[in-house]
Design a protein that fits this description.
Distance between the termini: 84 Å
Order of helices and strands: HEEEHEHEHHEHEEH
Number of helices: 7
CATH architecture: 3-Layer(aba) Sandwich
Number of domains: 1
CATH topology: Rossmann fold
CATH superfamily: Glucose-6-phosphate isomerase like protein, domain 1
Radius of gyration: 29 Å
Number of strands: 8
Strand order of the largest sheet: 5-4-6-7-8
CATH class: Alpha Beta
Length: 273
């Protein structure tokens, strides 16, 4: 069963592309027609592509890996932040920090710096600083929180990137391509789908369009996380059962040895007599 349907996408305005003069010819396979100078996206293909992307994201989540969501455009920021937070995934909604992926250790150092400032605040060292130093450190902490707070728990490179508007986030896409990290992207008619591993052809400007697609993908991620949890519980239960069986076998063997010991002693006594 599909995670979305034609009518839902139509109602959300996912079919509206850009003006014909702004189109990227590489998007031709996903364009249904042109109306009043605007390209109309084939929503049947969008439904199929959302299903493919959602299934792949589900498997990534099930394997315990992280997906980094990227959306710095105004109308997508809050939607992406809310949906990604709901499934405990990292996201970037402010300016993309150059080298976020290709120079990941440096980004981690900045995150650790934020953690060190928090440590200073909690252990009381912060209060011993001068007013000017406190102000400087507080501003630095606020800036780090704004840009990197949402990726504070991303301790290693993400397994995949989900991008809203691949044209606007082309630096992020290039970094992911360079490192061989799969890219999921909402691709409008003015963008190039060639560097995107999982293309979702749809309007990337309308907030409703973004929300419908994010809902489908995040629901799949949640399913993957739930299945991982169930498998973990089953594996622990199986391990405990195996442990009990082994303990039972060892106990049975010990009982047999204890029962055989008196018999052996009796036989030895009889032989001596």
């Amino acid at each position: 069963m599909s995670r979305t349907n034609f009518d839902t996408l139509l109602e959300a305005g996912c079919h509206f592309g850009h003006l014909k003069r702004k189109w990227n010819p590489a998007m031709a396979p996903y364009i249904f027609m042109e109306r009043n100078g605007i390209h109309i996206i084939d929503l049947h293909k969008t439904v199929a592509k959302i299903d493919d992307a959602a299934e792949a994201m589900k498997q990534i989540a099930k394997s315990g890996k992280r997906i980094l969501f990227v959306a710095t455009k105004k109308q997508a920021k809050q939607i992406v932040a809310d949906k990604a937070t709901a499934v405990n995934m990292p996201y970037v909604i402010e300016r993309w920090p150059g080298g976020m992926l290709t120079n990941f250790p440096t980004i981690r150092k900045a995150v650790k710096k934020m953690a060190n400032i928090d440590k200073l605040i909690s252990d009381g060292t912060f209060s011993n600083l001068s007013k000017r130093e406190i102000l400087q450190v507080s501003r630095q902490r606020a800036k780090l929180e704004k840009n990197l707070g949402s990726i504070a728990d991303l301790t290693r490179l993400p397994a995949a990137l989900f991008v809203v508007d691949v044209l606007k986030e082309q630096i992020a896409v290039r970094e992911a391509n360079r490192l061989g990290i799969p890219v999921f992207g909402i691709v409008d008619t003015n963008s190039n789908p060639d560097n995107i591993d999982f293309v979702i052809p749809a309007n990337d400007d309308a907030s409703k369009s973004i929300e419908v697609i994010m809902d489908a993908c995040c629901a799949a991620i949640q399913e993957g996380l739930e299945e991982r949890k169930v498998e973990k519980v089953d594996a622990e239960a199986a391990g405990e059962e195996e442990k009990n069986l082994k303990k039972g076998r060892r106990g049975g063997k010990a009982r047999e040895e204890n029962e055989e010991a008196p018999e052996a002693a009796t036989e030895a006594t009889e032989a001596a007599e």
